[in-house]
Design brief:
This protein is mainly α and about 120 residues long. It has helices spanning about 10-40, 45-60, 80-100, 105-115, and strands at about 70, 75. It contains four helices and two strands, in the order ααββαα. A two-stranded antiparallel ribbon has the order 1-2. Helix 1 (about 10-40) packs antiparallel against helix 3 (about 80-100). The mean pLDDT is about 90.
Length: about 120
């Protein structure tokens, strides 16, 4: 069976699209958080408050990993950059897991195993 015509191809494609979309939203949200803190945005302003509130649950696991760097009111939040990296790596891992469930023919599997063992 051709792997392009496999019954798992379309759900696999849709699954990877969903993972990339969710990651994209999360990365943009965290990037906004990083830039607003870096530029010393007013935390009580509507937009800043909205971004900080929305991004907080995703940034929280990383907040005490590194100290923030403060320069004249600006905050260089290293932990937000770490969160961006970690979530990207998690998305890559999820997509790799999706591809492990892809249907492959016996000759295709044998060829890939041969290639990996060289």
């Amino acid at each position: 069976m051709d792997s392009y015509n496999s019954p798992t191809t379309k759900p696999l494609y849709k699954g990877t699209q969903i993972v990339w979309y969710v990651l994209g939203l999360l990365e943009v949200l965290l990037a906004f958080r990083f830039v607003l803190k870096l530029l010393a945005a007013n935390p009580s302003a509507g937009f800043s408050s909205f971004i900080y509130t929305l991004s907080y649950p995703f940034a929280t696991p990383f907040l005490n990993v590194f100290r923030a760097t403060y320069v004249e009111g600006s905050i260089f939040e290293w932990t937000t950059l770490l969160a961006i990296l970690v979530y990207w790596l998690v998305a890559i891992g999820i997509i790799k897991l999706f591809f492990m469930s892809k249907t492959v023919s016996t000759p295709e599997a044998a060829a890939k195993l041969d290639k990996e063992n060289k």
